Amino acid sequence: MIPFSILDLSPIREGAAFADALEGTRRLACHAEQAGYRRFWLAEHHGMPGIASIATSILIGDVAAHTERIRVGAGGVMLPNHSPLVVAEQFGTLAALHGERIDLGLGRAPGTDQPTAHALRHDLRAAHRFEEEVAELRSYFRPLQPGQLVRAIPAAGRKVPIWILGSSTDSARVAADLGLPYAFASHFAPGMLMDALALYRATFRPSEDLDRPYVMVGMNAAVADTDAEARVLFNSHRRMFRDVRRGRPGQLAAPIADLDAEMSPQEAAGIDQMLSFSVVGSPETAGRQVRQVLEATHADELLFTAQIFDEEASLRSVSLLAEVRDALAAAEAGAGAAA
User: For the stretch 46-70, what's the b/e string if a residue is b when 16 or more beta carbons lie within 10 angstroms of its beta carbon?
Assistant: First the structure.
């Protein structure tokens, strides 16, 4: 059975408070655990009025404290915003508290605008040293060596899987060079997915962490009892992207049934191209869409994210998507037995 996982931005819904979003993230994580998802990852964004996933390591600790089995991690920490030593200390501490359930996904984009990125770390050249900083961070998790001057005490010797996140062939090359698992952000930037996966698989170098390529593909999701209901739910997600592209980001808003009537055909087409890796529909429709993605990408794991305004509908979407996963696994098992 191919694992399904969740990426959460901790959306702040219109009419709700920041703390409400964090409580919603806890509920979603517990629900995902009960539904058998493998991972629950938190994003890092800054300066966005509708996103509460900002202090990523703190949120990971909170979610891990409220769950028992599901892996919890960063999808991801935007490394140019942080000192590798501090990240190692944070995630080493998380691993000390929660054992081997902690994942560390790393991205090279700032996750914000340039003034905010400058305020976060002051050195905007850090993104150009991404591979070197990943290697430095990785070194802090190895056992301490005699005479080692810089030590991340809680990280040394701890097993915290490091992932490379990205949306281009540059990130694929880093993941392949370092022998690390690779998660592609096709849920909002699908354009270079196939080229990046081909490069990663062709140039992968086995490491002490991973002996073969491992790919996770990002997808949006809105699953409901009917296709029509799912499409309406998904319009909150499309509306969010529309408002960001128009330079007016806000809190997650209720869906507009006929959102396309408020956009030009060109604007709607641009948004739908960005969100083309999406599962939107009834469980039957979602199953077909997932199979198409797996056949095209041969992904080892799928990472789903959803910006659904109604929280109960969001939780139900997660449940229905888990049913899709189980149905695909049953079909695969049946095909194997028949062969």
Answer: bebebbbbbebbebbbbbbeebeeb
What are the tokens at 50?
Answer: 């509708």
Cα 165 to Cα 184, 273, 297: the distances in Å are 6, 20, 16
Residue type for 50, please?
G
Residue-wise pLDDT for 18-72, tens only, equals 999 999 999 999 999 999 999 999 999 999 999 999 999 999 999 999 999 999 9
Question: Based on C-alpha coordinates, what's the Rg of the chain?
Answer: 20
pLDDT tens for 163-198 read: 999 999 999 999 999 999 999 999 999 999 999 999
Beta strand 71-78 with 301-305: parallel, antiparallel or unpaired? Answer: unpaired
Please, is 239 exposed, middle or buried when counting C-beta atoms within 10 Å of its C-beta (0-12, 13-18, 19+)?
Answer: buried
**Cβ proximity of 305 and 220 under 8 Å:** yes
Torsion of CA 326, 328, 330, 335, to 10 degrees: -170
Give the three-state DSSP class for 8.
Answer: strand
Tell me, rounded to whole angstroms, the distance of Cα 209 from its chain centroid: 20
Angle between helices 227-245 and 283-297 (to 10 degrees): 60
Yes or no: say if 140 and 92 are a contact pair by the CB < 8 Å rule. Answer: yes
Amino acid at residue number 66: H
